[in-house]
Amino acid sequence: MKGIILAGGSGTRLRPLTGTLSKQLLPVYDKPMIYYPLSVLMLAGIREIQIISSKDHLDLFRSLLGEGDRLGLSISYAEQREPRGIAEAFLIGARHIGGDDAALILGDNVFHGPGFSSVLTGTVARLDGCELFGYPVKDAHRYGVGEIDSGGRLLSLEEKPRRPRSNLAVTGLYLYTNDVVEIARTISPSARGELEITDVNKVYLEQGRARLTELGRGFAWLDMGTHDSLLQAGQYVQLLEQRQGERIACIEEIAMRMGFISAEQCYRLGQELRSSSYGSYIIDVAMRGAAADSRAQ
């Protein structure tokens, strides 16, 4: 499976913060926003990832993440000339996807919860069409809303309904079989000239090939599109990290735990950042990982 992070858009709701900087490079407590969606794809076992953004910002992402080899990944970059809807990511990333299935995640979403890697890898293993992820909210009329049966099969999908049929908001994480590229090519632009992801999902719904995994109690989903939500996300990360002593979306640690890099490689990455608490944390988890590897031999 290939991964795509859609990090485009102009971030108008976050100006003046985004006057010269991509929203996805803004700090969310102790790390750049892009680390959070990247970590989700890594937890799903995905190692070939494309970041789609505007021309002005691509070099900044390259400077931060390079080609991904230091994390055991392969990261490529593609330009979105202007925002034309989420589903455009499949047209831009068609060559990157090739003959594989695809995972798309929005660059301003935070997901966190127990056993999330197992949830993701299990979903990838059973994928047969489209797999969405739903999160219960009290104001469902503000979101795309999915209705499911007892087995998780999607029954209906509505965009910002006046009378929602459920309280499950469709989050910014989507998994598809390879035919998503052709489906994205067949949908018509909306009145705003955008290729809507809901229209793609409805094709799978009509085919009876759409499912929705509910992220229930214990999970958190945060969308960082406004100043308030950006601050709230940073406070959430700060609170959990300081209380639990573990980092959320530490991509170096995830790369080691997923077997993408060795404990020794992780340690070296931590040494490069050793003057920060983030770097000290990486060094610590790498040393513990090395000790565990030694005991296992």
From TrEMBL:
Alphabetic keyword roster: Magnesium, Metal-binding, Nucleotidyltransferase, Transferase
CDD domains to which the protein is assigned, alphabetical: G1P_TT_short
GO MF assignments: glucose-1-phosphate thymidylyltransferase activity; metal ion binding
Cross-referenced Pfam families: NTP_transferase
Keyword Transferase assigned: yes
Stored InterPro entries: G1P_thy_trans_s, NTP_transferase_dom, Nucleotide-diphossugar_trans
Function (record text): Catalyzes the formation of dTDP-glucose, from dTTP and glucose 1-phosphate, as well as its pyrophosphorolysis.
Name the record gives this protein: Glucose-1-phosphate thymidylyltransferase
Protein source organism: Streptomyces xinghaiensis
Name of the gene this protein is made from: rfbA
